[in-house]
Design goal:
GMP Synthetase, Chain A, domain 3; mainly alpha; three-stranded mixed β-sheet
Length: 214
């Protein structure tokens, strides 16, 4: 999948955030964290005394934009910093700490989920990944998603479409998709073997064999 230019990512989410009834102003930037990573971060100014819940804002954006365009963090400001010329002063925005969070951590339950979790940890550069943690909440984007799919292909010998990680952006969902593909592959192999065996039998023997099997 072709990567979405950062300039588009930075322009679209603020417009969506501004649609929220409690948001007065909003900008989205890609500041460098203390850890050295760059993440999509939303800075917003609430309307008067209306302070929206961060989880509510994240859900609001998710309903309108793909996961990879959802900011990894939402930071409240009293006012958007401006330069003397009246332009947004992005250098004056607060520097976020490591914004990758792992609430409600649930560890891998089997070898497949363990392998996928380790792939995510390596690609996202996080210490641990729960099976229900959202790939994009951890700082993932389209290029990193492609890396996950590539490593899964090399490690597990499976050919997952890139869209799968956008449809089910967690380890549990990817593991389930791989199990489904493997099961379908096994059934296809069994059917091919059965058809080959039937092809070597007479019509009477084939009918007898079919009756026994089904």
């Amino acid at each position: 999948m072709e990567a979405i230019p950062v300039v588009i990512l930075v322009l679209v989410p603020p417009a969506v955030l501004m649609e929220h009834p409690s948001v007065h102003e909003a900008i989205v930037s890609t500041p460098t964290e203390v850890s050295g990573e760059k993440r999509l971060v939303a800075f917003f100014v609430p309307k008067h005394d209306q302070v929206p819940d961060i989880g509510e804002l994240r859900d609001f954006v998710r309903k309108k934009l793909p996961g990879y365009m959802t900011p990894a963090a939402f930071i409240r400001l009293d006012a958007i910093p401006l330069t003397p010329n009246g332009k947004i002063d992005r250098r004056a925005l607060p520097v976020p700490e490591d914004i990758r969070q792992l609430p409600g951590y649930v560890g891998p339950r089997d070898e497949m989920e363990q392998i996928l979790a380790e792939i995510w940890q390596s690609v996202l550069q996080v210490e641990k990944v729960g099976i229900y943690d959202n790939f994009f909440d951890l700082g993932g984007h389209s290029l990193l998603a492609a890396q996950v799919i590539s490593r899964a292909r090399n490690t597990l010998s499976v050919e997952l479409p890139l869209r799968r990680i956008f449809e089910t952006p967690n380890v549990a969902g990817l593991a389930a998709a791989i199990y489904e593909m493997q099961t379908a592959g096994t059934e296809d192999e069994e059917l091919a073997a059965m058809l080959a065996e039937l092809g070597q039998l007479t019509e009477e023997e084939a009918q007898r064999k079919f009756a026994e099997e089904f």
